[in-house]
Write a structure and sequence with these properties.
Elements lengths: L1 H9 L8 H31 L2 E2 L11 E2 L2 H19 L5 H26 L4 H17 L17 H25 L6 H17 L6 H18 L11 H20 L9 H6 L1 H16 L14 H9 L2 H23 L3 H33 L7
Antiparallel strand pairs: 1-2
Length: about 375
């Protein structure tokens, strides 16, 4: 038992049988199981009321597909955070306020995403809400400090304040849309979201003052895994903008909560490495569209995303998802190494993520082979 506890300490777990570690495990399992159990019922209701994603230029589904998966993930996420708070309340008042700000912002993003999924909203309306949720974080003390970013010159406070606010808004809005734009092939965003959440969770767990970030990331990670069980190709449900906004916004916001600080000043270098896949994907898409003379690059869907390019080469949504999971995991492990995390923690995190992804993918494929195709036809891709 002592050797097991010693090994756990090497992985950053101070007390293997303590209340803190127990609450993290319960949070993750609650989100996973709740989302897993809730989706079939939500899917049935979505089919009845017509909550479905129609085929378009960006997506690959050839027939309407229920798009309410984001609601199930949000429900699992919120329920798990409530359970975690009941098990181990966060006693620092300022952290409580910041966590509530993140949850409120995530709720607004899910609501707007869901309305957009079902009825359609203008790009300007969505952008205004995204900026509003970014401002919500800023007024509660969650923002990028330009002067705290390594390798950049120090600037006067009169310039640093407005510039820091601008960078924070760009970070929140940019990452939220980057994750949303990746949602075009079965399992990609769900798997990448799980990888990134778990990597950030493992990194935050190495620091005793980041319990709030750990709780939020555990809930998000569990919700992603529960959803992925029904989204690996051929999917039975997709997350829609509501789910993509939940992932993008929450990951961006939690990074400001202090998940990946080198020192007292916040640095975006590590989150950028961990989140390199959606960031690079959006960057190359925007540059390509601007080069073709498209004035509104984010409002002009096409098939130039990384997942579309990989799909064109593999001709398989499953292979595409697995390849991009691997890329996301490699970026995540590089980010952990960049942070200076113990190699044992990096290795254990990689193995755990790989096993969890294999488990849900195997269960999905086995379920389909046992008769899913006959009971509920689904398109080849989504």
């Amino acid at each position: 038992m002592e050797s097991l506890a010693a090994f756990a300490q090497q992985l950053g777990i101070a007390d293997l049988f303590g209340r803190g570690f127990f609450s993290v495990i319960i949070t993750f399992l609650t989100a996973w199981i709740f989302t897993w159990a809730f989706i079939p019922r939500l899917r049935e209701f979505a089919v009845q009321v017509g909550w479905a994603d129609q085929p378009n230029a960006r997506r690959l589904n050839t027939e309407p597909l229920p798009n309410a998966g984001g609601l199930a993930m949000f429900a699992g996420f919120i329920v798990s955070v409530i359970v975690a708070w009941a098990l181990r309340p966060i006693v620092v008042e300022i952290v409580n306020i910041q966590v509530l700000a993140i949850l409120l912002g995530a709720s607004l993003m899910v609501l707007v995403g869901f309305i957009d999924d079902q009825f359609g909203l203008s790009p300007l309306s969505r952008l205004l809400v995204q900026v509003l949720t970014a401002v919500l974080l800023i007024v509660n003390g969650l923002q990028i400090d330009f002067n705290a970013i390594p390798f950049l010159p120090t600037i006067p406070d009169a310039i640093n304040g407005p510039l820091s606010v601008f960078l924070t808004i760009v970070w929140i809005v940019g990452l939220t849309n980057a994750v949303n734009l990746m949602d075009g092939v079965d399992g990609v965003v769900g798997g990448v979201g799980f990888v990134v959440s778990t990597v950030l969770l493992a990194t935050a767990a190495q620091f005793p003052d980041r319990a709030a970030a750990v709780v939020l990331l555990a809930g998000l990670s569990g919700a992603a895994l529960g959803y992925l069980r029904y989204n690996f190709n051929p999917s039975r449900i997709i997350m829609g903008d509501a789910g993509a906004y939940l992932f993008g916004y929450t990951l961006a916001a939690v990074s400001l909560l202090g998940t990946l600080k080198f020192s007292a000043g916040a640095s975006l270098l590590v989150p950028l490495v961990v989140l390199a896949l959606p960031v690079l994907d959006t960057t190359q898409v925007v540059i390509g569209r601007l080069a073709r003379g498209i004035r509104n690059p984010l409002g002009h869907p096409d098939k130039t995303h990384i997942h579309h390019r990989v799909l064109a080469r593999t001709a398989s949504a499953r292979r595409t998802a697995v390849i991009l999971w691997g890329v996301a995991l490699a970026c995540g492990m590089a980010g952990m190494a960049f942070q200076g995390v113990n190699p044992a923690v990096i290795g254990a995190t990689g193995v755990l993520i790989a096993l969890c992804l294999w488990f849900v993918a195997y269960r999905r494929v086995r379920s389909y082979n046992r008769g899913d195709a006959q009971t509920a036809p689904t398109p080849k891709d989504s």
